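Changelog entry

Holo records now carry the ligand SMILES as an explicit input line rather than a separate metadata file. Below, a converted record for 2-acetamido-2-deoxy-beta-D-glucopyranose, shown in the new format.
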Amino acid sequence: MDILFVALLSAVLVFKSVETKCDDQPVICWHTDSPFPLTPPVESCYGEGLCKCTNETADCSSSFGNLTFVPNLNRSYQYLNLSNNNLTNISHRHFFTNVSKDVRVIDLYNNGLTFIAEGVFEGLEKLESLLLGGSNLLGYKDIPSLLAVPSLRNLSMSCLKLGNVPEDTFRRVTHSHLRYLDLSWNCIGSLNMSVFKPLRKLKTISLWRNEIYELATAYMPSWETLDLPTNRLYDFPRTCAESNTSLFPNLKALSLDQNMIQGIDDPVCLPKVKVLSVSYNHFLYFRTNTLRTDRFPNLQILQIMQMENKIYGVSPFFINNSAVAKITFVLNNIDFSKDYAHPDMFGGCTGVTFLNLRGNTFQYVTDDKFHRLLKPMESSLNILSLSGTQLTHISSNMFSRLKHITELYLYENSLTSIPDGVLDNIGPMWKLILDDNMIETISETTFGVELRSRLKDVNLGGNPYHCSCEILWFQQWMRSNPTIFRDFHTRGYRCANVRNVTVPDFVLNPQACILGSDAASLTIAISCVLLFFLILFIVYFRFRWHARLCLYEVCRSRRRRTRTRRFKYDVFVSYAEEDVNWVLDELLPVLEGEWGLRLCIHQRDFLPGKQIVDNIADCVSDSERVVLVFSPHFARSQWCQFELKYCQSFVMERDDVMVLVALQETQSRDMTGAMLAVLRTTTYIEWDEQGEAKTSFWGRLRLALDEMDEPETA
Ligand SMILES: *[C@@H]1O[C@H](CO)[C@@H](O)[C@H](O)[C@H]1NC(C)=O
Ligand SMILES: *[C@@H]1O[C@H](CO)[C@@H](O)[C@H](O)[C@H]1NC(C)=O
Ligand SMILES: *[C@@H]1O[C@H](CO)[C@@H](O)[C@H](O)[C@H]1NC(C)=O
Ligand SMILES: *[C@@H]1O[C@H](CO)[C@@H](O)[C@H](O)[C@H]1NC(C)=O
Ligand SMILES: *[C@@H]1O[C@H](CO)[C@@H](O)[C@H](O)[C@H]1NC(C)=O
Ligand SMILES: *[C@@H]1O[C@H](CO)[C@@H](O)[C@H](O)[C@H]1NC(C)=O
Ligand SMILES: *[C@@H]1O[C@H](CO)[C@@H](O)[C@H](O)[C@H]1NC(C)=O
Ligand SMILES: *[C@@H]1O[C@H](CO)[C@@H](O)[C@H](O)[C@H]1NC(C)=O
Ligand SMILES: *[C@@H]1O[C@H](CO)[C@@H](O)[C@H](O)[C@H]1NC(C)=O
Ligand SMILES: *[C@@H]1O[C@H](CO)[C@@H](O)[C@H](O)[C@H]1NC(C)=O
Ligand SMILES: *[C@@H]1O[C@H](CO)[C@@H](O)[C@H](O)[C@H]1NC(C)=O
Ligand SMILES: *[C@@H]1O[C@H](CO)[C@@H](O)[C@H](O)[C@H]1NC(C)=O
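Structure line, unchanged by the conversion:
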């Protein structure tokens, strides 16, 4: 319903808007913003539905331009809005009798007014504000009678195509209490301020959107606000009288936006100006001391925005004013890395708390230059904006000198990341606006714990977030502090890599991220190590016999010794009867056939007729080495045990004579004490049929037997 209402209203505004012309340039008049707050009308206050009312306001501006008289309102209202109607002729003294005496504001904007009867407002004792704009048939001649209303404080006569103010307009006015006069949009070209002198209590004058190119200033001690935006002034207005006293000794705010002013020349006498705005002008250079303290001793808020031309130079100390607290130096396209932007331009600005440099270029500004630029205000600056300055990175040092920042604006840049902790100690910051950059992720270390607990207002939207495990921490932070995040749950925090998904809504199987990235690399490292050992094991298994052989060689080589005695046999083989086949089929062919050793085998070499005990004793003592073929049969054979014991005692004299061959695995419980004893001191060589293992067996055996041969040949 409300939306419909507003839509219809704007239709009316378009329909009823008045076109004025200044020098044949058409100007469309729109109702300027309300000078007082209006709550939206809700309650109907007139039977025919021509007005909508709230407690204090009767808004009859919505009646489609059909209202030709002032309706009878059933209650008293302070604000009466009759704009956009057809009240063309305020023809008689009783025109407003239907309006209560309580009315303070009457808006008659855009009614095609042609005539206002004398004394029509006399009954309205509380009338303070009258808005008569947009009715281009009124003229300056109608103003004096209005000023006769003793209660009138505000008068708006905007968009009436009034033209230059005639010299005698206010001449007859004697007791005006007018505080505010709006003459905007009136095609004034040349103005002599002297005409306003009779308005002795005037504080604010708006001359916005005229064509003023010629301005004669005059002594205006009551003026506090002078609005001259959107005119054609070439020069900064003269503010000093002949004697260098101020023409505007009480002026607090001066707006000269959108003129063609190129500089501020001496002398300037504006002792109380707090707010100065010279945006959209034609300053080519900002020269040293342009805004210095003796020109503007009370200047606090300075606005220099969007010059209409390229700026050729910003000199050192161009402001040089310690009173200035707020500087808005935006959209001037100044490349701060270039020499024409002097690093000391803000010299003397020791009291700045707010600095907005949006819409300039900081891309190539070095840390040194940045520090020098902000040096004067290092101990005062609270609010800094470097938004839209094409910043591509923040160095870890960039903000290191700032210690009092409460609000930082870096939106609309090309930052790809925020180095960990760079924003942690730049002051008691609670507001951080970083939207519309190229930041891909925010991690736990980007902002310190202490900073995070301080932040009350954060905008990190409009960045191309890479939604993966790394983003989950950020998501958690957002979820647990939804109130500090601007545009939380809007499309502002979108995932660049997942279509139509925002960071708060991004879902990822938590299992996938249980191991953080550190853990993941650890896993990879462990896997590599395991793989390495696995390969090593496989290789070892493949060549395990070679390896054993090598090991054996190494061990045995330490025990080599020389021997001198010559023997009848090289080897005495002690074996059980049951293992004879192995001895004859395997051992004998290799040792005697291939290696050319002489073996003593009791079947063949024991002399018949001789005592078996003697045979053994002779054979052992005539053999250089003894090979004991261990097997379960060996353990059970009496003769074998005898041979073993004999050898053992024999070995006491000749060390390192015995070579053990394990033909089959023999359980230790099956072994005799002698066998166990010899096993404890002597390494044995296992027999294995398999190819590799067999090769290794012969190799090791050869080595064991060679140990005594080698020194002879050496
Ligand atoms: C009167 O109503 C018009 C249109 O609704 C609005 O633009 C204007 O600001 C109002 N006037 C005042 C004094 O509030
Ligand atoms: C004024 O008239 C409207 C419509 O007839 C009615 O709703 C409202 O209550 C009246 N207000 C007073 C104060 O009588
Ligand atoms: C309107 O007036 C009524 C009664 O006087 C009061 O209770 C209510 O708060 C007022 N509403 C507004 C918006 O001032
Ligand atoms: C005036 O009111 C009539 C009906 O009362 C309506 O048809 C007409 O459209 C209104 N005029 C405008 C300009 O809307
Ligand atoms: C006062 O209102 C009534 C009805 O609303 C209307 O008929 C009358 O013409 C109005 N009086 C004036 C002087 O406009
Ligand atoms: C305004 O009212 C007059 C009669 O008082 C009428 O002739 C004229 O057409 C009306 N204008 C509009 C725009 O409704
Ligand atoms: C306005 O009304 C008065 C009285 O009815 C009349 O004398 C005067 O000519 C009218 N003015 C215009 C411009 O219509
Ligand atoms: C008069 O105008 C001044 C300046 O625009 C404004 O602050 C004030 O509220 C206005 N007073 C009334 C009663 O409209
Ligand atoms: C402005 O008007 C005053 C008084 O009428 C006059 O003395 C002065 O010379 C005028 N100034 C200019 C520049 O015309
Ligand atoms: C006014 O001040 C300017 C510079 O600020 C100076 O050049 C000029 O001589 C002064 N004039 C008088 C009358 O003191
Ligand atoms: C800055 O202004 C002070 C006086 O406020 C002055 O002494 C100083 O010379 C000025 N600096 C420059 C560089 O002009
Ligand atoms: C993304 O969301 C918008 C609005 O919800 C929808 O119109 C659009 O079709 C969606 N696109 C895809 C690819 O899902």
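Spot-checked after migration. The longest strand covers residues 623-630. The pocket of 2-acetamido-2-deoxy-beta-D-glucopyranose (ligand 4) is lined by residues 64-66 (CB under 6 Å).
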